[in-house]
Every structure is written in C-alpha cells, then in structure tokens.
Amino acid sequence: MGWNRDAAVDFLKMVVAGQIDQAYAKYVDMKGKHHNVFTPAGMPALKKGMMENETQFPGKKLEVLRVLEDGNLVSVYSRLSLKNGAMVLAVNHSMRFDGGKIVELWDYAQPVTKELVNQDGLF
User: Fold this and answer.
1) Residue 104: inside a domain, yes or no?
2) Residue 40: Cβ within 10 Å count
3) Which of 8, 30, 54, 86 counts the most CB atoms within 10 A of its CB?
4) Residue 79 burial (CB count, 10 A)
5) Which domain holds residue 107?
C-alpha cells in the first residue's frame, strides 16, 4: 500500500472512532477544501460537521471494502453503520493529497435499503 492510501484509511478510521481532532492534526491541511453539499465551505466547517455527527451517532462502525489509489488521489469505498446498524450507508470518500496532507475531499453516501431492486446489491 502507498502512504496516501494508508493515510486515507487511517484518517477515516480515526474520525469514526471519535478521534477527530487527532485525525485532522495528522492528516488534513486546514486550508484545503471539501465538496460536501450539506456543509459550508472549508475544512474547519467539515471538521465541525464531523464532530456534530460523532455526538449524534457515537459508536459508528466503518468497514473499508475497497481502496483505489492513483497518484495523489485516493478513493475509499466502505460500509458505514450508524446507531447499532439501524442505518447503514454505502459511502465513498475521495481525497487529494499534497505534501502528505488531505487538501481536497469529496464524500458521497447512499442508504442501504432492505429491499433492493438490483440483486447484485451495493457491495
């Protein structure tokens, strides 16, 4: 595995474990940008949103399913369980690294429903 790949996975695992301050200090360039449409611009706003999510959903579980790395870009596809598995999401986090730090982040989530039309499923 490449360093960026390891860093992306470790960042997400730390955030889900509630170690948000540490994850940001270690892996995020706070001058970077993100593309989450539900959060105001800037990494400080994204960090605040992640902290609020931790308060709302403590004990989340992240299962990393696939990681793709292409140069300074890393995409992590995972299953995220909130509230003891009552809500499960298929999530993709894509990150652009520069100088060992995340300088740009995209995230997309889709709820996993019990009734799937597509028998191939989400995973």
Assistant:
1) yes
2) 11
3) 8
4) 17
5) 3-111
Report the CATH number at residue 14: 3.10.450.50
Quick check: pTM over 0.70? Answer: yes
Which tens digit of pLDDT belongs to each residue from 46-98?
999 999 999 999 999 999 999 999 999 999 999 999 987 678 999 999 999 99
Which residue's structure tokens are 């948000």?
20
Give the tens place of pLDDT for each residue, 2-43.
899 999 999 999 999 999 999 999 999 999 999 999 999 999
What would the 3-class secondary structure string for 22-43 be?
HHHHHHEEEEEEECCCCCCCCH
Q: Given the structure tokens 């200090």, which residue do they identify?
A: 25
Query: Is 32 inside any structural domain?
Result: yes
Residue 116 lies in a domain: no
Cα distance between residue 119 and residue 7, in whole Å: 33
